[in-house]
Each structure stands twice: as C-alpha cells, then as structure tokens.
C-alpha cells in the first residue's frame, strides 16, 4: 500500500524531471571529475558500489563476515580492521567498535560520505577495529537457512521487527565479533533503530551488558509519544492491522533496495539538475529538515544505498509506540495471539532498568524522530545514562550519519569517550 504510494510519487517526479532536464548537466559532470576531495571523488560511481567494494575503492582494508542467528537469519557484517593513513597495522589487537544503522539503511551509512567523513573510516584511523552490522532483512542480510524472503505465498521470513533485531541478531553478532577479535567487550554505536534494537537487547538479554564497555545512542529512539515523522504518523493509526493486511496480499517487506532509486538519484538528484531541490525535500521528509547540514551533492550516493529494505512489522511496531505511548514488545492486535506469544494479553514492556552497560545519549533539539521529551523519558528509566546534547539546535535526525559537520559535532565526542574507557590519549 505504502510502497505503491511512494512509487506513484516517484513516478510523478521522474516525468516532471524528464520534462525539465538541466542543460548544465554535462558541464557539471566535467566539473565533478576535476575536483579532488577527501569526501567522495565520484558520486555516480559510489552510488553503484556495494559496501565492500566502496571501502576497497578508497584503499581501506575490508572483510566480509556472516553470522547465523539462533532462528536461522544469515547476517552480513563488514569489518574495517585497521586504518589506511594512521594506525595502518594489520593483525594487531585493537579495541572493537560495533556500528548499527537505522531504519531503511545499512552499513553503507558509516562509509558513504567517504574517508574523513564516514564514522567507520574515522574510527579506523583512530586505531579501532571497526565492525558494521546489517539488520536482518536489509539488502546485505536478506537471507535465511530455510525461509525465502521472496515468497509471495508465505511471508514467514518477514515476521520480525526490531524486537528480533535486538533479541536475536545482536546476541549472535556480539558473540561472533568478540570471538573473532579475541576481545572481552566492545563499544556499541547505534543510530536511530540501531539504538532501539540495543535497548531491546540490553533489557531482554541482560547477561550481555557485561560485554558492552560503552554504548553510544545517536538519536536515541525508544519512547515515541512525541514522534513527528510523517511516515510513522501515517502508519500509527493502522499499526496493529497493517501487517496482517499486507501479508494477505503477500507483502512482508517495505521499501527494498532497488535499482530504480539508484538511477533516479544519479539522473535527477545530481548537482546541476533542476530537480535536485525536490530530491532534497524528499530527503528532509524522511530524515528531518536541516539545510545547514545537508550536502545535496551527495544525494546520488545516499539514494544509491537507501532504501535498503525493512519488514512491514518494523514500521508497524514503531507506529504502535506512537499510538499507545509504550516502549513494549510487538502487539499482535488481539488478546489471544498476544497471550500465545507472551503469556499476557498485552505485550510486555521492555524493562530499561535491566540495561547496566553505560549508555550515552547523543541527542538534538531538532530531531523529529527522537524528540527531546521522549529522550528525557528514556533517560529517566535507564539505570546508568549520560546525556550529550548536540551543540547545534538545528541538527536533525539524519545529520547524525550524513550531516556535513557530524564529525565535529558528534563523532569527536563519541571517540573521546571511547578513548577514555580504553585509556588512549
Ligand atoms: C559535499 O560533497 C562533495 C562530494 O563528496 C564534496 O566535494 C564537498 O566538499 C561536500 N561539501 C561540504 C560542504 O562538505
């Protein structure tokens, strides 16, 4: 349903754009090729490369690992084991930082802005062993030992939300990363849904808290009562029915990775296209508006890697949080199904007081998806939280990953805190 709407909107955009194609497109391309920067040296190429190839292109070391969860989902991890310019020492034991992306994105979030800007590169240069996760169901983790994500007759593969990403993916990934790296604990950095999944993980699998040296929640999302995301607002009144309706017509997946968005981004959202401002508006609609931190030149790369796919239930579960104001497990919409699943007629809340790992909440005032009031409530319920407000009032949700000054405004303090734990100066 939603997918259709979005496609219609995009089609209208395509035809509009085709009609008013910019005459400057070719000279822009020449200009793009002539500039040398430490960001992206070719946005059209970067839009097409998968994460491991993108990392290789910028001459960073990369490893691809796969982990199978207890319930059979096969997840792909991307690792940058050491730096390129600084700390370029292979096979040396380094402190581990694990990065988990937000909703509809992938590990690409931490590298697509390029060396010097992407958090994964910055951490590798600072001497860390960097691991990037991909949540079940996204472009890189769309596999299972027996279930078929493409089946229209049976959407069993897609019967998960960020509850399972926290409860099932994260324990498997943390065990794996610690085993391979030979470390006893790691630092966790999540953005948006990557924080929600952590809060599920830390409260449902409290035995893992000892393995988390520090947790950094960029744009923390648990309570949603004040959420202002247009997409989630739209879903929220239908949140307990949307999944069963969608699965009736064989849909379990929402906004999968597709070539259409990629080619659309490179054709119509590039510098020199008269249509670029419309692309920026679409970007603000999804990620929050802040023109100061938005680099429109990067739109083709962002659109080459996003959306990366989620389950309908992920969206519905967030919608429920807006509708009922709780941070609790998925509501199946009727007492019997809830009872069968949880042994209670209503879904049990996540017990945030069980999270004993130190949690740093990096939040901002202009975040429509992680509203200050909701962050405040989360802060009160966690047992050992520390708050860091981004010192720029206009900083928005998506700026934590793609913002022009994300490094100076957020990453530098995250890295300082982590170095403090590791005794690195
Ligand atoms: C925007 O991105 C382009 C391409 O990566 C880069 O050359 C440029 O310096 C960036 N602009 C800012 C303000 O960071």
Automatic annotation (TrEMBL):
<protein>
    <submittedName>
        <fullName>Uncharacterized protein</fullName>
    </submittedName>
</protein>
């Amino acid at each position: 349903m939603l997918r259709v709407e979005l496609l219609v909107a995009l089609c209208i955009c395509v035809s509009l754009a085709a009609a008013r194609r910019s005459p400057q497109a070719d000279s822009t391309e020449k200009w793009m090729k002539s500039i040398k920067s430490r960001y992206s040296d070719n946005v059209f190429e970067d839009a097409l490369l998968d994460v491991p190839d993108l990392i290789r292109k910028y001459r960073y070391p990369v490893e691809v690992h796969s982990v199978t969860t207890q319930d059979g989902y096969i997840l792909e991890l991307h690792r940058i084991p050491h730096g390129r310019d600084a700390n370029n020492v292979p096979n040396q034991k380094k402190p581990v930082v694990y990065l988990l992306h937000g909703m509809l994105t992938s590990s690409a979030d931490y590298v697509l802005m390029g060396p010097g800007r992407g958090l994964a590169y910055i951490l590798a240069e600072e001497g860390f062993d960097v691991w990037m996760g991909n949540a079940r169901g996204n472009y890189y983790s769309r596999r299972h030992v027996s279930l078929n994500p493409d089946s229209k007759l049976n959407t069993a593969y897609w019967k998960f939300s960020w509850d399972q990403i926290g409860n099932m993916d994260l324990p498997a990934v943390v065990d794996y990363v610690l085993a391979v790296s030979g470390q006893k604990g790691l630092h966790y950095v999540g953005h948006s849904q990557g924080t929600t999944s952590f809060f599920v993980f830390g409260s449902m699998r409290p035995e893992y808290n000892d393995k988390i040296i520090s947790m950094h929640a960029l744009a923390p999302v648990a309570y949603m009562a004040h959420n202002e995301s247009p997409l989630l607002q739209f879903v929220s009144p239908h949140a307990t029915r949307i999944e069963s309706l969608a699965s009736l017509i064989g849909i379990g997946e929402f906004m999968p990775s597709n070539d259409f968005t990629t080619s659309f981004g490179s054709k119509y959202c590039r510098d020199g296209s008269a249509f670029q401002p419309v692309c920026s508006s679409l970007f603000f609609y999804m990620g929050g508006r802040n023109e100061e931190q938005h680099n429109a030149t990067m739109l083709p790369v962002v659109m080459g890697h996003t959306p990366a796919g989620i389950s309908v239930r992920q969206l519905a579960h967030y919608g429920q949080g807006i509708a009922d104001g709780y941070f609790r497990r998925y509501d199946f919409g009727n007492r019997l199904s809830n009872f069968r699943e949880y042994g209670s007629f209503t879904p049990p809340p996540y017990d945030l007081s069980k999270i004993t790992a130190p949690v740093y909440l990096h939040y901002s005032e202009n975040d429509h998806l992680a509203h200050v009031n909701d962050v405040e409530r989360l802060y009160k319920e966690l047992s050992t939280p520390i708050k860091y407000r981004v010192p720029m009032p206009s900083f928005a949700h998506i700026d934590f990953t793609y913002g022009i000054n994300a490094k100076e405004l957020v990453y530098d303090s995250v890295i300082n805190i982590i170095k403090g734990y590791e005794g690195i100066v």
